Amino acid sequence: MRHTRNLAVALVTLALGAAPAVALANGSGNSGNAPGHNKTTTTTSTTTTTSNPGKAYGRFCQGEPKKHVAGQKGTPFSQCVVAMAHAAKSPKTSASSACAGLSKKHNKDMKGTPFSVCVTGVAKLRGKS
To answer: What is the pTM of this model?
Structure first.
């Protein structure tokens, strides 16, 4: 009797463990598009964009240095991320006013200024570039 129960438990465990693998192999698995989660992805030759960028504003500020500058609140990278958040929350805010707190001085080993990187990031965030 005990062996029969152990065998039954083993078979049920095996069946439950194999069910997701069989469903994925058949292509009938859910691809993460549950009801209420309408997240579409558009793929182009260079980038992948989603309809809801979430809170990943740092990807638009990748060129910013992450070293703290004396006399400024935060790093240029963190200032850019905050400016992106402000620009995303208020579409009427212009890119230059959202990035107004960033430096307009050129840094070595950086293409453009922190201000210009932020302004282009806001343009990319809004889909204009």
So the answer is: 0.51
